[in-house]
Amino acid sequence: MHFEEFVTLAPYTTLHIGGPARWFAEARTDEEVAEAVRFARARALPFFVLGGGSNLLVRDAGFAGLVIHMGLRGIRQDEGRFAVAAGEAWDSFVSHAVERGYAGIECLAGIPGTVGATPVQNVGAYGQEVAETIVRVRAFDTKTDKIVDLAAAECGFAYRRSLFNSVKRGRYIVTAVTYALRAAGEPRLSYADLQRRFPAGTRPTLEEVSETVREIRQGKGMLIVEGEPDCRSAGSFFKNPVVEQAHYARIAGDAAAAVPSYPAGEGRVKLPAAWLVEHAGFPKGYTMGRAGISSRHTLALINRGEATADDVLALAERIKAAVREKFGVELEMEPVVLG
Ligand SMILES: Cc1cc2nc3c(=O)[nH]c(=O)nc-3n(C[C@H](O)[C@H](O)[C@H](O)COP(=O)(O)OP(=O)(O)OC[C@H]3O[C@@H](n4cnc5c(N)ncnc54)[C@H](O)[C@@H]3O)c2cc1C
Asked: Which residue among 115, 201, 264, 315 has the highest number of C-beta atoms inside a 10 angstrom radius?
């Protein structure tokens, strides 16, 4: 295993931002993951697990520890069960399953990043989330230094959440994920955008649905297409906030336009962060120096070219302050900040 020094992280992120990692190594096996952790410990350094860098903002000063880049590869299929190594590209795995007629992840086409990161924030889009199909997560447990197999029920999945990014953040390094998919299954058409494309009575194939999802994503600047400036983002920069019903009623009472909302259980409602950002004065295409908002998606903060992490964070702070002031809602960042 090769440990490199002072590796610039910007090219490893979809925002193309970030300073150097003091140490950087690619782990290709479970054993190399363990070796990397030992390397960091021997030098009393923190370590960070890097997948595709698509949910990540690396600070300009970089990271004074070891970045472990997940390079584990391979897909093993046993009927409808697919055990996929953490370093496989997620979107390639979606195509792999769809081409073989397996349903369950077709609406998650076009999401960048790696398989190993999907359980971390319970990746979801267009009416599906990985928590519905994950049966097992294999991980290196840095507390016991052993490889463990966690059943889905042990992973604490919720909206953009799991034990990997909450109560046990940093403890597990996911090395493989097993998904249970449905052979010859019907595609999921629960999302309004998809229902419009495929009205009741039509019976699209899994391929048609996953391709349509990619098209819709591209239209919103949510598909990574080389050379498109709107793509230099980390996806949605803010989570959809959940507020008490009474708080929602106050916002709706004050607002000039109808405020969209979705039930979130126990007298609470989820508000679209995009609506709040837009109505706090930040339309698509808004710019602030080298940072800005995608011209096709209000929630995607972008690097307009040569932006620094500080530029993006300053824009995020300006947006958060305006939303707090106008609606009394505290927006939470979705991407992880490193450094
Ligand atoms: C254009 C665009 C569109 C997007 N659309 C969506 C969307 O529709 N839905 C959605 O949910 N997300 C979306 N995202 C966010 C992102 O793609 C997902 O969060 C993705 O799962 C991140 O994967 P990654 O490999 O790039 O993780 P990274 O950005 O490399 O890492 C993210 C976090 O996960 C941790 N991590 C990564 N791999 C592992 C591992 N093997 N073990 C333990 N921890 C790990 C990292 O340490 C870090 O904390 C989008 C991003 C972009 C840029």
From this structure: 115
Is the overall model pTM greater than 0.70, yes or no? yes
List where CATH 3.90.78.10 sits in the chain: 229-338
Nearest CA to ligand 1 atom 27: 51
Compute the distance between CA of residue 180 and CA of residue 149 in angstroms, rounded to an integer.
Answer: 15
Decide if 160 is catalytic. yes
- Check 160, 217, 232, 296 and give the catalytic one: 160
Query: Is 111 a pocket residue for ligand 1 (Cβ < 6 Å)?
Result: yes
* Side-chain-facing half-sphere of 2: CA atoms under 13 Å: 4
Yes or no: say if 104 and 97 are a contact pair by the CB < 8 Å rule. Answer: yes
Ligand 1 neighbour 68 (Cβ under 6 A): no
Q: How confident is the model at residue 167 (pLDDT cuts 50, 70, 90)?
A: confident
Q: Is 334 annotated in the active site?
A: yes
Q: Is the pLDDT of residue 188 over 80?
A: yes
Top CATH class of 3-70 equals alpha beta
Asked: is 75-219 a CATH 1.10.10.10 domain? The reply is: no
261 is catalytic: no
